[in-house]
Known about the structure:
Blueprint: H1 3-11, E1 12-13, E2 25-26, H2 28-31, E3 35-39, H3 50-59, E4 61-63, E5 70-72, E6 75-79, H4 85-90, H5 96-102, H6 119-134, H7 143-151, H8 157-170, H9 181-184, H10 199-211, H11 230-239, E7 251-254, E8 290-291, E9 294-297
Parallel strand pairs: 3-6
Antiparallel strand pairs: 1-2, 4-5, 7-9, 8-9
Amino acid sequence: MPAGLLKSELFGHEWGAFTGAVTRTTGRFQLAHQGTLFLDEIGDLPLELQPELLRVLQEQEFERLGSTRSIRVDVRVVAATNQDLEQMVQDRRFRADLFYRLNVFPIMIPPLRERQDDIPLLVRHFVDRFSRRMNRQISHISSAAMEMLRVRSRPGNIRELQNFIERAAIMSPGPELRLPPGELRHLVYRDAPAAIRTLADAERDHIQNVHSRPAEWSAGVTAQPPGLGSPGLRSSIRCASWISVSTSKARLFCSGVSETPNPTSRNQTGVGPTAERKPQRLGTKNMLPKMNGILLSEY
């Protein structure tokens, strides 16, 4: 909603205040005099309207749009948001004084994924509501269906659960609640075990990840690559039976291998030749520095 229309909705406007304003309109604050006004999604309030709201909360008075006469009200304001207002204050997208004025008695409601014990109560509540609305007698929910609803991932929280139960009630002709079969394959279990990676896979991926970022450490830098020391790197490369990582202009060879190359010999793991070749000695013109057990050799 544009800021001008939102201001008119909250505070009202006078006749002729803007194009189409043919009558005087009473705003929400004046209608809520000696009562409670609920402001939902307060984090979406435009910055240009935040001083107006701050004045109402602080001084209990405002002016209609197009008027110079102040109107005093006695209103209790309850505001809600799903955004992090403290972070918005740091990002200068929400006024700090308005935040502290609203933050008199904060109530933090955790997301539904952190309140699994509430899900059966909410499911029965929504089933009873939609059963009465649709004139149906849904009185039974199987334990398997309840468990699926309990472990299902819900980014939309209670609104998503409500819509899901409504679809299930529409598709349940009998007394038992039936979950929509087309959506069962989209169930995401939060406690599902992740695939277990071996130590060798993790070590290989880490070495390849470090060497795939040549901009972070190069031949002219004396610091070691993150998490890789000279002895550990040489040992890892030797155990992996000559790992080479190619970049656009260089190939990395293990400089810790000193035995004579023998293409027919195999290491203890039986993966391949222990050393395919020694690092070549380069001339002064093409010499590249040696660091951290790695020799960068042009090819």
